[in-house]
């Protein structure tokens, strides 16, 4: 008897959870001091724990720093925000902003729309509570990797439609943007890609069990045709990533809709390269995120 999608997703959670928390030793930025605390934000889908990274121990003495909300990857089923510790620490130090790393709900225990509700509500809270948090909520950006990049695109869409807050930048890194197309038809340019169709189907079926719901723009923002008015975007794609084509297409669609876009394809790398390397490309991509953030938040 075939295993149920829920059982398969739980097995992948257990298998990948520890693996995804590992970062290449030369990408850990152990030389960068870490100034962190945790906070809990109430949302319409339950409380969410966030880790807050400060630019420096003395930053509180000056004017409030801008803020960046980060959503980790994990195929919507792996809840390991610590996998982005290196990235959050580096960005806080070099972009001069507070970073809020969000531990959102994951499937199959909490399928769509729990993660979307939490991601949006946390970001709206960050934007509205700068005085409480010790940051400037009016200078806000949002970003993420893979599933987190999907949530980034969705949060920006919801903010535009509801008129609640206006991110100055969205960082879309190796994004999963099309949950309708069969993963087997998504091209990889390497013989052994990190993402296999089997694994991607488990992610999708756990997150949105009903295929009819996967075309919803809050699930597949890359399939939406009303992109005008979204925040400026930094779109990062990896040459050999099975998600590359949908990321490239989203960058072009945003640009065609009049959204300012910086799009960079990193050559010779696969999905998750900002965590597992190659080190040179990973460092360059993280530096690009930080410099683009600094420019957008200081404008």
Give a quick set of tags describing it.
299 residues; alpha/beta; Rossmann fold
Helical fraction: 25-40%
CATH fold label: Rossmann fold
Query: For the largest beta sheet, what order do the strands appear in spatially?
Result: 1-2-4-3-5-6-7-8
Strand content: 15-25%
Number of domains: 1
What is the first-to-last residue Cα distance? 58 Å
Walk me through the structure.
This protein starts with a helix and ends with a helix. The chain contains nine helices and eight strands. The protein is globular. It has a single domain (5-298), classed as Alpha/Beta hydrolase fold, catalytic domain (Rossmann fold). The protein has helices spanning 5-20, 85-95, 114-128, 130-133, 147-162, 197-207, 244-256, 273-276, 279-298; strands at 36-41, 48-53, 65-71, 98-102, 135-145, 169-173, 233-238, 261-266. β7, α7 and β8 form a beta-alpha-beta unit. Strands 1-2-4-3-5-6-7-8 form an eight-stranded mixed β-sheet, sandwiched between helices. The protein is of the alpha/beta class and 299 residues long. The chain is 37% helix and 17% strand.
List the topology elements.
Layout: H1 5-20, E1 36-41, E2 48-53, E3 65-71, H2 85-95, E4 98-102, H3 114-128, H4 130-133, E5 135-145, H5 147-162, E6 169-173, H6 197-207, E7 233-238, H7 244-256, E8 261-266, H8 273-276, H9 279-298
Parallel strand pairs: 3-4, 3-5, 5-6, 6-7, 7-8
Antiparallel strand pairs: 1-2, 2-4
Helix pairs in contact: 1-6, 2-9, 3-5
What can be said about this structure in brief?
By secondary structure, this protein is of the alpha/beta class. It is built from nine helices and eight strands.
